[in-house]
């Protein structure tokens, strides 16, 4: 373990985290921003694109989710997308500046029948020179190994909230199962993307509890998405109370302090935040966004609007070290040629 990795803490207590949340707003932000500057260029934000590769009819009952088969949200369902369509969408994401391509499927877990297609998607997207990320539900040890061998860089599996509050939100999958999937992902050598959602009726201690679970994992997740609940009509949380915007920023800042080397992602719910709030979020330590794409099935601001905001704030997208060998170059060119023949960037409803 490197010296800097050894200095990361994995023993946060509830009292300590409560104390951070209770700091005066400016003191907390100052501290979070100082930590951020120690570990990152504060004027760089990592940009990912998210594609729903299989939409709706999910057997899980997550109360916040428009894709759960348990809720009547009127969502257009779509079966697993064709591999070539996914690769085309990834090429377009790269062309508009994304460095990571995240593919999400509304499953309890991937089936044996679907795995070969999923592995082909990973290989194809990777060959474009993009970082790859997937979220497919619970994974067995064998599945994580196969995904890692195919070249998957990140696996997203959110803890959602504290262990204490979790049962109010999801009953079809346990917290322990989630932790087990995260352990399999680590074992297979992949990076972890895991975070949670604010605005589901949780208490401040639940927010602290979520961050404690994430920070006290044997290694911090490389990516920590902090989502603001998007209240989808037809879900049990459609009338949930709004989160105080300052409490949302506080949570980002506390996450930054607790997991100083992780990318903290301003994730779902960003389209409902004004530009001033987003700027404050970047100051508090958020340094990753989804853009230029529909965020699974909820809205996300357009890429140009994001780029305009970046320009106004003097922020540049984080660059990825390119492996610009000939194979990758050829794959990129081929994908761009194919993409020109496609008028659609991505249409999850036509899979
Ligand atoms: S959050 Fe994921 S697992 Fe839960 S219902 Fe939605 S798609 Fe299914």
UniProtKB/TrEMBL annotation:
This is Biotin synthase. Pathway: Cofactor biosynthesis; biotin biosynthesis; biotin from 7,8-diaminononanoate: step 2/2. [2Fe-2S] cluster binds at residues 102, 133, 193, 265. It comes from Azotobacter vinelandii (strain DJ / ATCC BAA-1303). SMART domains: BATS (SM00876), Elp3 (SM00729). Residues 43-261 form the Radical SAM core domain. It catalyses: (4R,5S)-dethiobiotin + (sulfur carrier)-SH + 2 reduced [2Fe-2S]-[ferredoxin] + 2 S-adenosyl-L-methionine = (sulfur carrier)-H + biotin + 2 5'-deoxyadenosine + 2 L-methionine + 2 oxidized [2Fe-2S]-[ferredoxin]. Binds 1 [2Fe-2S] cluster. The cluster is coordinated with 3 cysteines and 1 arginine. Binds 1 [4Fe-4S] cluster. The cluster is coordinated with 3 cysteines and an exchangeable S-adenosyl-L-methionine. It holds the Pfam family BATS. Its EC number is 2.8.1.6.
């Amino acid at each position: 373990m490197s010296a800097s990795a050894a200095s990361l803490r994995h023993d946060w207590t509830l009292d300590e985290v409560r104390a951070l949340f209770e700091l005066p707003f400016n003191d907390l932000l100052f501290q979070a921003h100082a930590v951020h500057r120690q570990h990152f260029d504060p004027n760089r934000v990592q940009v990912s694109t998210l594609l729903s590769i299989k939409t709706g009819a999910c057997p899980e009952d997550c109360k916040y989710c428009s894709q759960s088969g348990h809720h009547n949200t009127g969502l257009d369902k779509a079966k697993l997308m064709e591999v070539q369509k996914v690769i085309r969408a990834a090429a377009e994401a790269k062309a508009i500046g994304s460095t990571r391509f995240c593919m999400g499927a509304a499953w309890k877990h991937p089936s044996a029948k679907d795995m070969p297609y999923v592995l082909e998607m990973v290989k194809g997207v990777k060959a474009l020179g993009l970082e790859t990320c997937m979220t497919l539900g619970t994974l067995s040890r064998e599945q994580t190994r196969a995904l890692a061998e195919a070249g998957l860089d990140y696996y997203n599996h959110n803890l959602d909230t504290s262990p204490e509050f979790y049962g109010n939100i999801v009953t079809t999958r346990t917290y322990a199962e989630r932790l087990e999937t995260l352990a399999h992902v680590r074992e297979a050598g992949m990076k972890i993307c895991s975070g949670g959602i604010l605005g589901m009726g949780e208490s401040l201690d639940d927010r602290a509890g979520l961050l404690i679970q994430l920070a006290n994992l044997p290694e911090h997740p490389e990516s920590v998405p902090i989502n603001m609940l998007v209240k989808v009509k037809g879900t049990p949380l459609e009338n949930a109370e709004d989160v105080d915007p300052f409490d949302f920023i506080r949570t980002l800042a506390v996450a930054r302090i607790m997991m100083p080397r992780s990318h903290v992602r301003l994730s779902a719910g960003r389209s409902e935040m004004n530009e001033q709030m987003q700027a404050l979020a970047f100051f508090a330590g958020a340094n990753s966004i989804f853009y230029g794409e529909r965020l699974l099935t909820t809205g996300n601001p357009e890429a140009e609007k994001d780029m305009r905001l970046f320009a106004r704030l003097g922020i540049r997208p984080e660059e990825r070290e390119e492996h610009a060998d000939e194979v990758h170059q050829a794959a990129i060119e081929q994908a761009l040629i194919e993409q020109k023949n496609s008028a659609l960037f991505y249409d999850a409803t036509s899979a």
